[in-house]
Each structure stands twice: as C-alpha cells, then as structure tokens.
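We emphasize that the prediction below concerns an isolated chain of 198 residues; any contacts that depend on oligomerization or on bound cofactors are therefore not represented. The input was used exactly as deposited, without trimming of termini.
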Amino acid sequence: MKILLVGASGTLGRAIADTLKHHEILAAGRSSADYPVDITDDASVEALFARTGKLDAIVSAAGVLHFGPLESMKPSDFAIGLNDKLLGQVRLALLGQHHLNDGGSITLTTGIVSEEPIRAGANASAVNRAIEGFVQGAAFELKRGLRINAVSPNVLSESWADYGPFFPGFEPVTAARAALAYQRSVEGIQSGRVFKVW
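Result of the prediction step, given as a token string:
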C-alpha cells in the first residue's frame, strides 16, 4: 500500500512507520523535508495531496492540544485544540477522501482522555471525543468502499517523563503496542471504529 503518514517524526509516528514498513510510507509533518504540511491550513493540505498523488491509506498521528486549568482557560486557549488536532485531522479526512483509491482508509488519532478525563485536560477530552464522533458519523457516508477509524491510545511509555504527572494511576503503553492498532485499521476491514489501546 501507499500510505501517507502525517506526524511521522513524532514518537507515535515513528512507531507507526516501523510497524507499517512493509508498505510505501510517505512521511509528512510540519518539519518534514519531503512532505511538509500544516494541517491547520486548507491550501497546505491540498498542496500535500497534489504531491502525493493517489493513496491507499491516510494515517494521522498529528495534532496539538491545550492543557491547563479550566479556571484560567481562555476561549483562545480552547481553540488551540479545536483548530489543530480536531479540525486539522478532519481536514485531512475531508480533503483526503478524494485522493484515496477505492477501498482506501483513513485513520485518525484521539486518546484515552476522551473517556477518562484528567486534571487540566478539558480541551483534550472535548477534542478527542469530537474526533471519535466525526469518525463514527463519517463512516456511514464514505463512498467507494472507503473506511475511516480512530485509534485512542493511553499515554505512551516513551512520553511518561513529560506527561506522567498529568496521568496519576494510569498505566502507560508503549508506542509499538499503540502502533499495532494503526496496522489493524489500515490493513483490516472495519470502519467507524475507535480502537482503544489502554
């Protein structure tokens, strides 16, 4: 398969690329030398798909969220997650569907806080749940045998040093384990699913 992987340089993205290395991987992201993209910008995403040509799968491991106490959170803070992780991934799906071969797939990324809220994580909970709702609704409308799923990983072991204090009592998962759910989404047959890796 020819797979576009957005967020390929991140911890999760690198693990996904390694798991799917038996396919042709086009590594994209803000800092990508080969396929640079800003998922918050329509023109940038369109330019990306113009360069990639037809694809068999689109995988997103990208998206920025705002973490901070609700008491001091401003609408502009909350908009960070809306404009980046939510609309950025939705943008990849909406524009990308037209660049997929028949039977192709889209895989987006959410996270455990969609169902297990954490302190200072209201933006993350809202954004992740919205992505899951989009995936579940979009699955019914995609044409040509296209599929869409989301992967909801727990906090990653590799990121525990940075994010562990936000997740007291949570059991982290390795990026390699999380990456298996992306393989399941890309190579499997299901659509409209949220694959939980908790």
